């Protein structure tokens, strides 16, 4: 996916090399195609030393300023409430997925249709369900994974965590995400499509997302997306399947 560069490379280039090496282990890319922009957040060292901590703090502040000024005013609310979770993430106290979930909260509304393109153990599916579920039962989470054990794991997490009524709002599919258009009913416009790339935690590390199928799935996601919708990617740069 093309990014129009709304991320703080100027800040990155001013950081010491050692810092950049440590930083470069995890990335996000969020895109709201209706307004044709995307942005990417990159993690700071998990174990920053005293000297790098101050650099990391400056980085967080500068990154947030850079995002704020780059994002169209109409979408400024995307970043609302993000400072704390971003700072926690930079210092290893929050997970990458928690940053993603915080952004989703600013986009997804009760009753929305959303897609989890890589449901894995179901933590993202559950977070999505909490955002869309209400008494009207109009919302839906379409969640998929290539692996049967991933779907079982997601199903079991949902059964333990939500009421049968809420559970009924999630549809699970054993499917490659390139085929996501086959499961979302025509006419449903999707508010969020989320990807969490890589392999199933606790599963077979050889079965992982691949860049070519991810690219095709992103194209499919863009077709399904409602105006103002969001494609969210948590990307691990530590191995090829996570990119
Ligand atoms: C990092 S895990 C996802 C974690 C998950 N979102 C969670 O909350 O636990 C990545 C998942 O993508 C799945 N996957 C890999 N290639 C896929 C594909 N082409 N289509 C759908 N899922 C795929 C893997 O089986 C794995 O379960």
From TrEMBL:
<dbReference type="Pfam" id="PF06962">
    <property type="entry name" value="rRNA_methylase"/>
</dbReference>
<protein>
    <recommendedName>
        <fullName>rRNA methylase YtqB</fullName>
    </recommendedName>
</protein>
<dbReference type="InterPro" id="IPR029063">
    <property type="entry name" value="SAM-dependent_MTases_sf"/>
</dbReference>
<dbReference type="InterPro" id="IPR010719">
    <property type="entry name" value="MnmM_MeTrfase"/>
</dbReference>
